[in-house]
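Entry for zinc ion complex. Fields follow.
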Amino acid sequence: MEALCLSLVGSDRGFRDGGGKMAASRDQLGAVEEKGGSGRQGSSGVEVVFPSDPATSAPLCPHGPTLLFVKVNQGKEETRRFYACSACRDRKDCNFFQWEDEKLSGARLAAREAHNQRCQPPLSRSQCVERYLKFIELPLSQRKFCQRCQQLVLPDDGEKHREHQIVGDVSITQLKRPSQLLCPLENKKTNAQYLFADRSCLFLVDLLSTLGFRRVLCVGTPRLHELIRLKASGDEKSNIKSLLLDIDFRYSQFYMEDSFCHYNMFNHHFFDGKAALEVCRTFLQEDKGEGVIMVTDPPFGGLVEPLAVTFKKLIAMWKEGQSQENNRKELPIFWIFPYFFESRICQFFPSFCMLDYQVDYDNHALYKHGKTGRKQSPVRIFTNIPPNKIILPIEEGYRFCSLCQRYVSRENQHCEHCNSCTSKDGRKWNHCFLCKKCVKPSWIHCDVCNHCALPDHSCEGPKDGCFICGELDHKRSTCPNISTSKKADKAVRKQKQRKSNKMKMETTKGQSMNHISVTRRKKRRERAHQYLCS
Ligand code: SAH
Ligand code: ZN
Ligand code: ZN
Ligand code: ZN
Ligand code: ZN
């Protein structure tokens, strides 16, 4: 079971982002979108802390260094902080928990170490590559893919997959599009694997090539990675190279070491150690760092700050390879994320601006480009490339605003009072003279609150707002933050439970030892199976 989580986590946890804005999962987007901008002071949830003294290194879970969290109640931080997994929102996927001030016995540390080891994928990176090389040598009729195990099958894999669903005659074209062969890991709480619709993916590839990039560091963008490579192999002119960093280990079956690294973007952890880190470094620093861009599409439930910390580390890695005179240059970045994270992202990257382009996804009902007029996707591109260089497709209604010097959505109108095209969500926004800014068309100015909000909002103080997060516009039962507090409570409860279980175990150790080793062995076998048979 544990091994499974390694390749399958993708994490869109419902933690509260430290900036006070709810960190939404992709499925909560609708709810968060319509929220007013009120009631921050009473915020509750779990926030990540970056200790001022980084010398105290965080304990490790199977997903690398853990992060330090603090529970916040009505805006107040609880004093006792704890370490938890950086990548998994659901404790079912990684149940790591440790109080910051907790001292662990040598035995428990050893057990943890062993557990972390057991959770690593059964095949090493080079074994995967070896298998891939064997696979492409096979005649078409012998090239099989097991859907149950999500694995390429070799003739000497024997009977293992006999009763599984098998795809036969796997063509080279199919091998080049693993994101279509693999099933997307979209279970809401953990994986959140949402693949670009072709329209958006093609737009991105064309844009990257128009902008003259020769290398793309794809962080959590497997479909973009494969499309870049597909185009490069079919077209001499656009010979763009791509390196994919992703936590989904299944992709290691399809790429050599120099085009995929098993990576956790919430703690900048390379699962295959120094060799993989060097692959990334070399890629960023090639040509003195010229012609490279980073494109990332993280799980939306993820916290912005750990992501920003990671991206700054990647930027630093790129910078090391720069010559002195290029000192002020920035690593070009596309960060794909919902528009309502704009202020949060710009807080960490002041040079970024948000483009109006709406990014669409294949396997997300909400953001699919439908036949009957689509729901508008809230997902945008944040970038440090000057927006006037980025041409958005006219045929989709985007047009150039010469005053703003950027392409904007069809209905985004230039407001003469704000002196900008103010719409964030693609609808026409209205200027409110009392708020001195443009607001969503569904909002009206409230004299009680002294700002604009939804007409049916409640004007009373936080006491009457949500019991969990203190926001004014919903009740406890519909709180998008509910899973957060639950997780923290559960973490504490589980911790207590483990302690009492451990005490019980110790009293019955003699009799149960044998039983334990049998179930362990069985579990290990199950794990190996689970890992392969996701
Ligand atoms: N739209 C992109 C996919 C984005 S979905 C595309 O089509 O290419 C989010 C991606 O981030 C998934 O591929 C998922 O496996 C990856 N991911 C999730 N959590 C991660 C983590 N902690 N570290 C690295 N990658 C992660
Ligand atoms: Zn973990
Ligand atoms: Zn305005
Ligand atoms: Zn107003
Ligand atoms: Zn709430």
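NOTE: The mean pLDDT is 81.
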